[in-house]
Amino acid sequence: MSKKRILIVDDNWDILFLLAHSAKRLTPELEVVTASDGRTALDKIQKQPFDLVLTDHVMPEMTGVELARKIRAIAPNTSIFLMTAYEANRLTEDVKDIGLDGFIGKPFKIPDVLATIRQTLKDLTPDGPIASPTPAPLLQPPQITARLQQLWNETSVRTVLLLNTDGEPLQAVGEAGRAETTRLATFVAGTFLAVSEFATLLGDHQSSFTSSYHEGTRYNIYAHRVNNDLLLAVVFNADRKPGPIWVYTKQAASAIAAMVED
């Protein structure tokens, strides 16, 4: 297979890191380039050809539709997919002159985005499809479900979420719906990945970050690493004291790690 090059454009750094990291794992023959805004993306496209562009729609200064239109003028043969929370039919009139290759709905699941990349690059590659990643295991044994429920009972948090490091939600307990857990999983996994990437840029290739904490005006998010593949996150009201919640979450993460090893 000849080397393929894709460009991912999103102003959310967590999503950008996670998508790029996941795409790079598809095959060593895939070069993944990122941009956090439309102007940077256009500059990269003018300097080198891309087989595929995945771009967010709602971005400052230049929307994904505006970017796609400019890309078409520069690189008419590049495949373009628009990532958007809008329903596709709401944008149909705006993009009918561009000839988009498709839409990716937000919130998305990482495997769905990877499937789009695989299918598009398979169509572009005469030598056949690139390899598919190993599907994420479904971690739903009763003991893990019971331990997540126990953590929720101990802490009275809004949401308890077990996810993998690719940003896929595996199990959730609490008030969050499917869309919210998908966004939360993407954010948490992206945060861990972004911090690790930043450490690498600083020359630290050995640190393994075990937890992250984000304070908001209404809710706080705490996440702790279970093992190399899993993360455990909790969402709780901002007026709560975080200390006890951290302790219970760490205990639950250790317990789940032992269950997975067994």
Question: Can you put this structure into words, describing what you see?
Answer:
The chain is α/β, with parallel strands linked by helices. It has two domains: 4-124, Rossmann fold (3-Layer(aba) Sandwich); 142-261, Beta-Lactamase, CATH 3.30.450.30. It has eight helices and ten strands. It has helices spanning 13-24, 38-47, 64-74, 88-95, 110-124, 142-155, 178-201, 242-261; strands at residues 4-9, 30-35, 52-56, 79-84, 102-105, 159-164, 169-174, 211-214, 219-225, 230-237. It has a five-stranded parallel beta sheet with strand order 2-1-3-4-5, with helices on both faces. A five-stranded antiparallel beta sheet has the order 7-6-10-9-8, with helices on both faces. The chain is elongated. The termini are far apart.
Brief sketch in words of this structure:
With 262 residues, this protein is of the alpha/beta class. It has helices at 13-24, 38-47, 64-74, 88-95, 110-124, 142-155, 178-201, 242-261, and strands at residues 4-9, 30-35, 52-56, 79-84, 102-105, 159-164, 169-174, 211-214, 219-225, 230-237.
Radius of gyration: 20 Å
In spatial order, strands of the major sheet run: 2-1-3-4-5
Secondary structural class: alpha/beta
Shape: elongated
Q: Give the % helix.
A: 40-55%
Poorly predicted regions are: none
Helix and strand pattern: EHEHEHEHEHHEEHEEEH
Question: What's the story with the biggest beta sheet?
Answer: 5 strands, parallel
Topology readout:
Elements: E1 4-9, H1 13-24, E2 30-35, H2 38-47, E3 52-56, H3 64-74, E4 79-84, H4 88-95, E5 102-105, H5 110-124, H6 142-155, E6 159-164, E7 169-174, H7 178-201, E8 211-214, E9 219-225, E10 230-237, H8 242-261
